[in-house]
Design brief:
With 511 residues, the protein is an alpha/beta fold. It has helices at 25-33, 87-102, 132-140, 150-162, 186-197, 216-225, 239-249, 353-376, 380-395, 403-418, 421-441, 455-465, 485-496, 505-509, and strands at 35-41, 46-47, 52-61, 72-79, 108-114, 118-126, 170-177, 204-210, 229-233, 253-264, 269-273, 281-283, 286-295, 299-307, 316-327, 333-342, 344-345. The strands form 4 sheets. It has a 6-stranded mixed β-sheet, sandwiched between helices.
Length: 511
């Protein structure tokens, strides 16, 4: 993304059917005031001679009820290999149609399928009432067969994104797969595609792994390449709920192209940032993480363990934080900072309960990571014992009645069960990897953490459970019409795609 050095601009002449409100200096101040940034140390004042201290960096985009929804371009990349045949593919089709119900008429959707080779099933098309029959038909025509070539699907999807002559402000890719890629060096080949196609626009990636037989490590790796999210769908019949939750979370956005930097100062060292392998990089002594999008109403907590120098003074400055990005509303750039200052005394104060809660979550994620490694070495009893140690510590704290802590204990208890060798080999590893990641970065998309859902997620999940999101989206005899030339071209590309999954230069010249 490169947004830590220079923030990308969005060309307003490329934005279609979306006229963002022009932001005055006053309204820009209101926007930045909704971004709350704070360091929360586990203790402050800190006991003299303390060497190590856990600190939580909390960043929250406070919800604005008057925010304008930014239209979305969504490309769904669907595995239709032989292992998807039957109930799995039927449920995937239903899930895609539920997404169609959640999206607005201004949103656009395209569809790419892959097995041994990839095919564009539907070019960019707006989710209007007239177009719904075409979208439904494209979804229902999906058929299973062949091997699994994930790169071919990602390749075509990225080319669809790159070749857009018209663009909505938000771009997303959903990747759905239940199996292992049939080819070698998947990570290297995907990285090469990212570099080769080189999409300049900001876009987000959500990866969904189906069933116990999918390669969770591989799926998570793909998500990490774009700082995206990975969801393990253990029970395929729950696929629609996962999809609705994921797309609903993207319907209300605050910012894009965001970079968060944390710099230790005055001799302080950052010993560990929990989830350090999930996007954090250290460059010239500064820790930074880049994010494609920040949701309106989203709260993020980053937990770190710092080492303090000796003989420090009161009001000691330990950490500096800087966040940069662009408002979704009009692509105006923003920047905000925060400082951690510490005071010291002879006796230890009580712990900060907010910090303690997120420290428990971060440490539990690390414990699950270590338990996965032990289980892979068939040291299953040691893995279970390790998880028991953090459960005992949490249950001995004064946070036991907190709903988030109760969910955390449930996750840890489930992870214990998943450590048993037979269960671990079938579905336990995928379950634990998903929990390990989500405890750090993604609870807003978690089924078990409804307290973290935004308003759109709550509303759409409620409608789904009440049967108000039905699949009768179009009447018999409706006729759909592609609403711009680019959509028609997408269909032509689909008919001419080669066996290698490449789009020739001919298509671009026909625009």
């Amino acid at each position: 993304m490169g947004n830590c050095k220079s923030l990308a601009n969005v060309r307003q002449d490329e934005i279609v059917t979306y006229q963002p409100e022009q932001m005055t200096e006053t309204s820009k101040d209101i926007q930045i005031d909704r971004l709350r940034t704070e360091f929360i140390p586990l203790y402050n004042p800190v006991q003299m001679e303390t060497e190590h201290l856990h600190v939580v960096l909390q960043i929250e985009a406070i919800k604005n009820q008057l925010s304008q929804k930014a239209p979305i371009d969504l490309v769904c990349v669907v595995d239709v290999s032989g292992s998807m045949d039957g109930k799995k593919l039927i449920l995937v089709k239903d899930s895609l149609r539920f997404i169609q119900k959640v999206l607005s008429p201004e949103d656009r959707i395209s569809l790419v399928s892959f097995e041994t080779k990839a095919e564009i099933r539907m070019g960019w098309i707006r989710n209007t009432p007239n177009n719904k029959p075409l979208i439904k038909e494209s979804i229902l025509k999906l058929q299973a067969g062949g091997g699994t070539n994930i790169v071919s699907g990602i390749d075509l999807a990225m080319q669809l994104m790159k070749r857009r002559s018209q663009k909505n402000p938000v771009t997303l890719m959903f990747l759905l797969s239940d199996g292992q890629d049939s080819n070698q060096d998947l990570q290297k080949r995907i990285q090469e595609k990212f570099k080769q196609i080189d999409i300049k626009d900001i876009w987000g990636l959500k990866v969904f792994g189906y069933g116990s037989d999918h390669d969770s490590k591989q799926m998570e790796m793909i998500a990490q390449l774009k700082n995206g999210s990975y969801t393990f769908i253990q029970h395929v019949q729950k696929a629609s709920e996962h999809f609705i939750l994921a797309i609903s979370g993207m319907l209300s956005l605050y910012a894009k192209n965001v970079c968060i930097q944390v710099q230790p100062v005055n001799g302080v060292q950052i010993q560990q940032i929990y989830g350090e392998d999930m996007g954090w990089k250290k460059i010239n002594g500064i820790y930074q993480i880049e994010q494609n999008y920040v949701l309106d109403g989203q709260s993020q907590e980053f937990v770190m363990n710092i080492k303090l120098p000796l003989n420090i003074q009161q009001n000691f400055e330990a950490l500096n934080m800087n966040i940069k990005g662009e408002f979704i509303q009009d692509s105006k750039k923003f920047e905000k900072s925060a400082v951690l200052k510490l005071n010291f005394q002879d006796q230890q104060f009580n712990t900060n309960e907010i910090a303690q809660l997120y420290v428990f979550k971060a440490r539990s994620s690390e414990i699950i990571r270590q338990a996965i490694q032990l289980s892979e070495q068939q040291k299953n009893d040691q893995a279970i014992q390790l998880i028991n140690t953090i459960i005992d510590e949490i249950e001995g704290s004064n946070l036991l009645q907190n709903p988030i802590i109760q969910h955390l204990i449930q996750d840890l208890q489930k992870s214990k069960e998943m450590c048993k060798q037979q269960t671990f080999n079938i579905s336990g590893k995928a379950f634990m990897r998903n929990k390990q990641r989500n405890l750090i970065v993604q609870c807003q998309d978690e089924m078990d953490y409804s307290d973290n859902w935004n308003e759109e997620q709550v509303k759409n999940m409620e409608q789904f459970k009440n049967g108000e999101l039905c699949l009768s989206v179009c009447e018999i005899g409706d006729v759909g019409v592609m609403d711009d030339f680019e959509d028609l071209e997408g269909q032509n590309i689909a008919r001419r795609v080669s066996q290698e999954g490449q789009i020739s230069d001919v298509e671009e010249g026909q625009k």
